Structures are given as C-alpha cells and as structure tokens.
Amino acid sequence: MKRHTLLVLSGLATLSLAACSSDSGSKVLQPGGTSGGGGTAASVVSGGNDPAPVDASSGTCQVTVTGDVSAEWTAGGGSGSIGYGPWVAAPGVTSILGPLDESFFIINCDSNEGNYVGFMTNSDAKIPMAPATYAIPASASALGGSAGPIGTIITLDSTDTNWMLSGDGELVITEFDNDHIAGHFTLPITDALAGMTGTSKGNAVMTGSFEFANPS
Question: 32: domain range?
Fold first, then answer.
C-alpha cells in the first residue's frame, strides 16, 4: 500500500537545494538527481522480485528488517542519498530550509520500491563533521519525534501500515570527513496504526550500514 509515498516524497522535496549565480543562471539540485552519480536501488521483501543492479560507485546503504515483518534492500549513493550543508556550501548557494551549515543533514536509504529509511536533523540541531553516536528517541508518531538531534522516517512496502520506533534507536557515524561518511544504525520498530485499527502487524528490528562518498 502506498499511503506513505506522498509523505516521504513531500519531505524529500523540501530538501531541494537551489544554487544561483549571476553568470551561470540557476540550477536545482534535489534528492534523486544526477549530481554525484546517484544509483538505482534493489529491494528484496518477502515474496518480492529479484533485485535490480545497484550503482555502488558513490557508495551504498544496506538495510535488513527482521521480526514479524522482514525486508532487505541495498540502495546506491549520490546526491539523492546523502546531503550535508558544509559539503555543498559555496558562494551563491541557498537552501529553502535556511543556511547550508551543519544543521542541513540527511541520509536516505531508499529501495525505490516502497522500502525506505531516512535520517534528518530535528529543528536547528547541528551535526558536526566527526564520528559520533546519536540516540533516536522512541516516538508516538510515524513522522518521528522532535526530541534528539536526529529523527527518522520509515516505510515498508506491502505491509499496509505505517511504522515508528518502539524504543530508542541509534545512529552511529564511524567516519565523517570532507570526502565521505560511514556508519550503521539499529531501529526497533512497531506498527504505528495498531492503536487505531485494533490489530497490529507486529514488531521488528531494522539494522543497516552505509558508506557514501561526498557527491558535491
């Protein structure tokens, strides 16, 4: 069921960057664009199709979901998968979200087939270019909570529901410099609509690892 799709796409659309200069006109960079060689993605869900090839030239993100629901996919890198203010900041570059500083941070692991996990800053939190461990507090909403510097959005294809954290998750950045970012994450998840529908699709644990090159 695709009830999540517009929500995720609208959230990604707000992260578009507009780079303007007086001598080159205007240029728009947005998640899923070609800048940095963003690749296709593969998805393997229970009963799913064979995975498509993944362009790993700019890095990858591997995700596994185990428990009452299961899924597995690998996403390619590029400008649609990683965004960080200091990587793209330059004279004449602006963002509809404000200054391109450490508060602009997003990681997307998107199967392009309905499976998605994304991480982004909450409020004006700033993410330094350094290894760190970030707790992601459990939320009462499928949109993620406002507590903590980083929030997450999760969708799983063919589950006919929304998903949210059932307990505190963790995003660990092991490497982060001008050239690349790498790390891993663990997210306990649960059916976000169980209280509304009276039935639950259950609980699961999402784990993943990523390494993306700077696409700028």
Answer: 5-213
